[in-house]
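Exam revision sheet. Question 4 asks you to relate a sequence to its structure. Input first:
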Amino acid sequence: QVQLVESGGGLVHPGGSLRLSCSVSGKLLDYYAIGWFHQAPGEEREGIASISHTDGSTYYSDSVEGRFTISRDTAKTTVYLQMNDLKPEDTGVYYCATGYNPALRLWEKMYNYWGQGTQVTVSS
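Answer key, structure tokens:
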């Protein structure tokens, strides 16, 4: 059974940075992807970044490319989301998820296992 646990959320000022972590336990097969999703208050959940479990390739949504970086540790047990130049619209709950997804799509339907989420608030 795959389990994911997010951490690292909190309150940050606009323009600040935060790094989220996603601890992954259980066996991931080849061509699985780990994705980060953002759900703003009152909005639908949106995929923002993904990384391949197989080769570490990455993909970003237009809304975060250039500001956020997804990466993983060498043991492939933790995936990070480094968030820079944070804006108030980045406020919300951030989830990590995984599923069979060789093309690194940011569609929720491609992800079978989800964490519980971590809250990020960007406010002055």
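Marking note for examiners. The chain has no helices and eleven strands.
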